[in-house]
Specification:
about 10% strand; about 475 residues; 3-stranded antiparallel sheet; mainly alpha; single chain
């Protein structure tokens, strides 16, 4: 049987340690202010009177210096304390996506428009255009932005880039969705389907389903998609892809992709039930069901990442497929409750948010004694945001009376997502070096998580009385 490995991957996006009591200078000022500015000034006056030498210019000079110094201390402490009070009354800086005060809109837009603009600008500048002698003109992105050597569009990078463009609404014409769609079809393998760059010439279901989901979202022909969907379903069986069927990441990726590309597929209920059957019970979190990285023994330790992936897939399946069995619903709700039972704090840097790296090993069809290896890196905080924002998760938090805990976990995960980007682009530090990479998939997941969070946090302005509305 193939081996898969899962471990935490260090990333520059990991949040900084939480500081519970504020900066030290602020604490000192508040401590002095607690005695009162006058008391602080009097203490300085008394100290100077006691320590200034008698020969400094007589008794009156000593008292004059002490009085001036004491008065200066009164003014300084009073102003500092007033400034701190003003900051506290105004509230702390608002993390990404958190609601602002009712009048905040008048002060100008929040940071998300600049972040989205920065992401689009970078993607537009680093798009790859290659004239391939066999496949024709290719327009898209490689796996990571800024890769050394000549850039060449890949199926995975271009599909994620297309998702980003659709999320951003294609603000102007430097990037055309039609060019990206054409490129994905041209990157299709000769026998059908798609694979990642390191997987060679054999189609793999998780990559194929991911590309099909992007094509379907961009409006590709249903008839053309149906042929590829059939090939993906036929190849994703326990006999032909035992490794993939045992992995939570692969099954949830296929499930989400097919829900977009073929919502009436007969394979979807079977994949949903297979995912449900792969859940495990965790006695450390009130015996709620959750998921590890494998759906078959040995499942591996309970994983917030894979539980979030399962919750997202099951919630989407419930809405697309309509009916939901009692067992499927119970497993999905248990997954949400398991996430809400996180024992760690603070929630913008808890262990549940640790980024992970997963190694998928499949026997090669041309030489079963050798394996193809696919390294999959997971941006865990973004998955937590998406899972906690599913309609089912919000309903469960309300039903269980834990909306405050739900909001705390959600805001912490969103803050961790925000912390990992610079000008709308996310970075990942390679596991074995200090090299920073900027994978397109990570930017897509960061942008989609923040966008979903911002949409949920939106509150329309208070409606003005009819008499105050402008005419026409």
């Amino acid at each position: 049987m193939s081996r898969q490995q899962l471990r935490r991957g260090p990333s520059r996006s990991d949040p900084e340690p939480h500081v519970p009591h504020g900066p030290r200078p602020a604490r000192l000022v508040r401590w002095l202010g607690g005695f009162g500015s006058v008391a602080a000034g009097y203490a300085v006056f008394q100290s100077l009177v006691g320590v200034l030498p008698d020969n400094i210019g007589g008794q009156s000079a000593r008292y004059a210096i002490a009085v001036v110094s004491g008065f200066g201390t009164v003014v300084a402490v009073w102003l500092s304390a007033a400034l701190l009070r003003a900051r506290q009354e105004g509230g702390p800086p608002v993390p990404a996506g958190q609601p602002t005060a009712p009048g905040a809109a008048a002060a100008g837009p929040g940071p998300l428009p600049d972040l989205f603009s920065g992401a689009y600008r970078t993607l537009a500048e680093q798009i790859c255009v290659v004239d391939d002698p066999v496949r024709g003109r290719l327009t898209g992105w490689s796996h990571s932005l800024g890769e050394s050597g000549p850039g060449r569009p890949t199926s995975v990078g271009t599909a994620y880039g297309l998702h980003i463009m659709l999320d951003l609404g294609m603000p102007e014409g430097r990037i055309g969705a039609g060019d990206l769609v054409d490129t994905l079809w041209r990157l299709r393998l000769p026998d059908g389907g798609w694979s990642a760059r390191s997987q060679g010439s054999q189609a793999r279901p998780e990559v194929t389903a991911h590309v099909l989901g992007a094509l379907a979202r961009a409006g590709a022909s249903r008839e053309r998609l149906a042929a590829e969907v059939a090939l993906c379903e036929a190849g994703f069986t326990a006999e032909l892809d035992r490794t993939g069927r045992e992995l939570t990441h692969v099954v949830t990726t296929v499930l989400r992709g097919l829900l977009r590309a073929a919502p009436d597929s007969a394979a979807l209920p079977l994949l949903r039930d297979h995912l449900v059957e792969g859940a495990v019970t965790d006695p450390r979190r009130r015996y709620h069901r959750c998921w590890g990285y494998r759906l078959a023994p040995l499942h591996g330790p309970p994983s917030a990442l894979h539980t979030a992936q399962a919750v997202v897939a099951l919630d989407r399946a419930a809405r697309v497929l309509g009916g939901e069995s009692g067992n499927a619903r119970a497993a999905r709700e248990d997954g949400v409750r398991w996430l809400l039972a996180c024992p760690d704090a603070p929630h913008d840097s808890c262990l549940d948010l640790s980024n992970l790296r997963e190694e998928i090993r499949r026997p090669r069809t041309d030489d079963p004694s050798r394996h193809e290896v696919l390294n999959v890196r997971h941006f865990t905080a973004s998955w937590l945001v998406r899972a906690l924002l599913t309609p089912g998760a919000r309903d469960i938090a309300r039903e269980d009376g834990v909306e405050d805990e739900w909001r705390e976990l959600l805001d912490g995960a969103a803050s961790a997502v925000w912390a990992g980007q610079t000008d709308g682009i996310w970075t990942w530090m390679r596991d074995d070096t200090s090299e920073l990479r900027r994978p397109v998939w990570m930017t897509y997941q960061g942008l989609s998580a923040l966008r979903a969070h911002a949409v949920w946090m939106y509150r329309p302005p208070v409606d003005r009385p009819p008499a105050d509305r402008p005419n026409g």
